[in-house]
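Technical annex B. To support the medicinal chemistry partners, we prepared a structural model of the target in complex with zinc ion, based solely on the information shown next.
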Amino acid sequence: MPDKLFHLGFLKVKYKAAIRDKTMKLRKGFLTNWRQMFVVCLLLVLCGRLIKAQEFPILVYHRFDSAMPGLTTVRTSTFELQLEWLEDHHYQILSLRTVTDKLRTMRDTNAPAVAITVDDGHRSIYAEMFPLILKHHIPVTLFIYPSVISNASYALTWEQIRQMKRSGLVDVQSHTLWHPNFRKERARLSDAEYEAFVIKQLTRSKDILSSRLGGQIDSLAWPFGIHNSYLENAAQRAGYKTAFALGGAPARAGGNMLAIPRIPVSDNDTGARFYRLLMDPRRNRREK
Ligand SMILES: [Zn+2]
């Protein structure tokens, strides 16, 4: 009988030990799962922030007109509607330099943000767009090719550009020397001629803008959006830190800083259509 009791007592102790073991294992497992869940949550939050920080629609305009829209002409009233839409929907309009800094450092903004660029230096920039820039107090970057400035009747003058720059809202950067089609020039010229041509287009423009206007000229917009690795390397050697293409998509952190996509805006892009352009521009174009 005492043997039996001893045996039963032993079983009880063994049973308790087994339960304790199981509980410890469960506790351990629970803790491990919590740790895993925490890491997964943290990664999701970080990825979410990263994805948000990666998207900046950079808008590109060309010409403005008080009455007549065109293929690359936006009516002044449409441009103002677009600015008001951005303000009403709490978009920040950042300078292009701020956006490229954020793309480089993967820094976030508290609100959705866009940047505005205008290519080619058409005279309507001064007459039609500039008053609205002042009224709404927003930063804009102009990409111009110096060969036409104070030269062609359709182009801005150096004095108009200086006046816009003095407002502190307008930055001016390079669009090459005379807006060539690099694809056509490549087919026409020998290797050596093409190399000299590319260097001239990139460096002369930079030098002229710098001596005429001062400031840092380290951004380039590819004429017709044409670029490739040869041109990108040449731009980098010429001292450009960023270069902008077309492409119709928002700019994302981690992308090629010498081919940052921009979104061309047309006169049709108002209201919900403008919103879709910022969100998913390629879908918007297909719906046209
Ligand atoms: Zn252009």
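Notes passed to the chemistry partners:
The chain has a mean pLDDT of 87.
The first helix runs from residue 2 to 54.
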